[in-house]
C-alpha cells in the first residue's frame, strides 16, 4: 500500500465555476473524490490539499517524506510558471511526482509554456481536463515498486 498526496495550486478551489470552457465543469471536490476512489480501489491511500499560498504548498512538499508519502501528484497551477521555491522543495525531498494540468498550456498564452517543474517530474500530463489527474495518479501507481509486504 502506497500513500499519495495530491496538491492543488492557486485558484483550483474555483473549479467548476472558473472558466469552464478551459478548465471543465468538474469541481475540485469531484476530482478529489474520483482520485480517492481510484487510489482506494488499487489498495492505496490518498490525501488532497489545495492552497492559494505558495508557502503552504512548499511546507506540504517538505513534510511529505516525514509523513511517509510515497509520491505526489501536483497541479501547481499558476505557480508552474513562477515558483522556484516550490521547485526547490521537490528537488530537496527527491520524492517522485507527476505534474498535471487540466488545460494544455502550449495552446495558451506564451508565458504558460514554461514550467519550473517539468524537468524534475516523472511525467507531465496536460490537456485532458480532470482526466489529467486520473492519468497522473495511474502513472504514479505504476511507478512505485511492489514491496514484499504488498504481495499476497
TrEMBL record:
Reaction(s) this enzyme catalyzes, per UniProt: 3-dehydroquinate = 3-dehydroshikimate + H2O
EC numbers: 4.2.1.10
Keyword terms, alphabetized: Amino-acid biosynthesis, Aromatic amino acid biosynthesis, Lyase
Domain of life: Bacteria
CDD domains, per the entry: DHQase_II
Molecular function in Gene Ontology: 3-dehydroquinate dehydratase activity
Residues the record marks as site: Transition state stabilizer: 18
UniProt name for this protein: 3-dehydroquinate dehydratase
Organism the protein comes from: Arenimonas maotaiensis
Lineage: Bacteria, Pseudomonadati, Pseudomonadota, Gammaproteobacteria, Lysobacterales
Amino acid at each position: 500500500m502506497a500513500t499519495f498526496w495530491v496538491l492543488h495550486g492557486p485558484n483550483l478551489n474555483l473549479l467548476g465555476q472558473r472558466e469552464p470552457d478551459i478548465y471543465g465543469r468538474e469541481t475540485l471536490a469531484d476530482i478529489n473524490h474520483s482520485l480517492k476512489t481510484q487510489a482506494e480501489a488499487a489498495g492505496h491511500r490518498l490525501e488532497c490539499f489545495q492552497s492559494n499560498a505558495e508557502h503552504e504548498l512548499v511546507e506540504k512538499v517538505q513534510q511529505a517524506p516525514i509523513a511517509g508519502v510515497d509520491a505526489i501528484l501536483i497541479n501547481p497551477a499558476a505557480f508552474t510558471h513562477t515558483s522556484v521555491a516550490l521547485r526547490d522543495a521537490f528537488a530537496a525531498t527527491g520524492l517522485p511526482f507527476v505534474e498535471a494540468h487540466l488545460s494544455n498550456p502550449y495552446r495558451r498564452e506564451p508565458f504558460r509554456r514554461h514550467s519550473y517543474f517539468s524537468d524534475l517530474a516523472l511525467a507531465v500530463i496536460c490537456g485532458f481536463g480532470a482526466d489529467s489527474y486520473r492519468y497522473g495518479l495511474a502513472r504514479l501507481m505504476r511507478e512505485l515498486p511492489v514491496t514484499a509486504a504488498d504481495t499476497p
